[in-house]
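Archive entry. Fields below.
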Amino acid sequence: MRQFALSLILLIAVSWFPAGTLAFEAEEEAWFGPEDSAQVLRIISTADIAFIAPMITSFLSAEPDSAIHYTVAGSTEVQRAIVDEGAGFDVVISSAMDLQTKLANDGWASPHLSEVTSTLPPWAVWNDMLFAFTQEPAAIVVSTTGLNGLPLPQTRNDLINLLRQHPEVFRGRTGTYDVRQSGLGYLFATQDARASEVYWRLTEVMGGLDARLYCCSSHMIDAVKSGELLIAYNVLGSYAINRDDRDEFAIILPEDFTTVMLRTALITRNAPSPELSRRFIDHLLAASHGSSAIPLTHPALDLDRVDPSLNRIQVGPGLLVFLDQLKRRSFLSEWASAMFQN
Amino acid sequence: MRTPVAHGSLRRRLLMSLLASAALLAVVVYFVVQSVARQVAQDSQDNVLTASALSILDSARLSNGEISIDLPYSALSMLDSLSDERVFYAIRLERVFLSGYADLPSAAAGRDAPNTPAYLSTPFLGEEVRLATVRRRVSTDQGQRFLEVSVAQTLSGQKQALARISRSAMAIGAGFFLLSVILAGIIARSAIRPLDRLTASVSRRGPKDLRPVAAPVPSEMVPLVSSLNSFMRRLKQSLLRSEDFIAEAAHRVRTPLAVVRTKAEVVERTSTDPETRKAVRDMIRAIDDSSRTAGQLLDHAMVTFRLDQLTGEEINLHRLVADTVERMRPTTELKDITLTATGKTALGKAALDTAFGNATDTDAAFIMGDPILVQNALHNLLDNAVKYAPAGADVDVTLKRMSLDNGQYARVSVSDTGPGFGDADLGLLPKRFARGANTQAIVGSGLGLTIAKEVVEAHGGRLQIANSQGGGACVSLLFPLSC
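PREDICTED_STRUCTURE:
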């Protein structure tokens, strides 16, 4: 396992890097592979290091001379790093599909065509620039113990009926994303609203029960676990299922429709190592699609089970609509009026 | 005869011109189809862009004097529906940017026309885009203002469509050219056909046929054909004139020769000097020779004349042969030559009459033609045979039916037991004034076989010359049977 020793993962605190060279706010950085490698692939990503590490080690085992510098940042910081600062990143990985689409649409991505990309399903590639490599559903996370024998809701209508029938149980104990703060929450909300009117009814019901609002999926799950919440709506399912304590709550993929977020990757327009970037993207896609895929998401998250009601968020200019300031303003005001009824 | 120098080919030139114009047209078709397709593709793209921009424009609402725009999801997603396209938009109130891409130009800049969509092709963010701008008048707190929406789209779908259409246009052009090649071949062939027909009709003619070309020809060929006709007329006149001249000369010479011969005979009889008598005998021989030549020249002229206006009447060849043989008999008896006429039917006059009375005679030979010419031809053959055969020889005339080259022929052969043609080239003998190699001692003009040949060929038959196996000559006339 000398190879593994070489590609020793170096987790380094942000402060270790000379401050000031990067004005955007990086959360974490890591170096994979030999330290003195001539070929370095620079990735900026919203995904945690632990999430992506298996993919990177498998790539580096095929490319022993290369190294990967991995930077984790929030989705808007990723956007700033590329657009405002032109920081020298090769590959951008993000769960913010709308921002990724905007990057590609605005010409920050370079097209990539290969044998691997030509075999991708149509939904997984846009304009040969943006490639999806995970499918991560929005789930309803329910505290199994807290429900006290009430039936588990399988659809949004079930959920609405449950909430309406037992307002005293659920008052103040439902939660969802604060879509004003969370990009992913906004993405899920807009897609839900686009898919069905039931979203607005659910929001009104939750608003009437003084729903709590959260910034992230982890907080919602923690709240469910601690008993603070009974039900959390639109939790990132892939995150929930990857947790070690996932037996302590139920993860429900709504049967009426399940909104699926696609994590996407692109190669930047002026990538310093374009060839290495292409090889990495091909490796990433080959490992994520097809029959022999080893997806990064948990195998228990069986999307085949809900396939007919799968509502994959479509990569494309339609996503730009919800980035529009006027649109965003009107959507948020509508959301706020449904959520805050008093 | 000198072969004409060929310079170029009408058919090839016609074909080349047709092919060149077809190729030119194919290229034109290709470009026209492509440019029309480009226009159509452009128009349809413009329509989609306009629809998208109008749907954005329609979503604008005025609330509390402020513009709010609820951008429809489909407004941008429709532009991406068929092919992945990068999409840009900008919403402006007059010059004030409201939302979208602030740098996106307006296609309606500097235009006043408020309601018609304007289009623009421009590079934007590193790629060529097509842009549509629509406007609407809205009332705001500051009064009437123009709300303007511009939507732009990259051209990858259009480029794909155009590449596809370009391939189709190429195929159409190629197909058009291929069809033209086939048609050009047919046209060139049919355009040249009258010329081929004229060539065939002129070269099919016999050597003596100098009639003008009467068959209708295309107007372009009329000058050529009329020059040809006039040339042939002049040639014919000149031929006739020389024949006339020869006949006239022969006629003029023959009468004085007869007088000179008579005088010479008198001198021969009255002279006692053997030297003088021998000289006069030689003279008489020379005179005979000349007079005979003159006679044959006259015959020849007559034959030529009659051949020009060949009449076609039915000739009973048996009767004709029998008559000619009988007419020749006094001469043969003088020279002590046995003249026999044989055939399946005996050719004796009486026998013939009997045979002729019998309608069932299967050997009756009828041909179409001029009896005087046929008789003259046969007479010349008999004359030659009697003349060249020594005294006491046999001359035999036979008439037979025979088939040759899928045709039924009557064959009249004259064979003798004379010296034959010797080693002379048999093909050259029927030429005018050509004589065999062993004939110096005998008076002759060399026209007899010529006349026979011309006559038999004018009747569609042929002349055969051969040496008989037991010595002696055999000349045959083959006439095609009329029935």
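CURATOR_NOTE: The longest strand of chain B covers residues 127-140.
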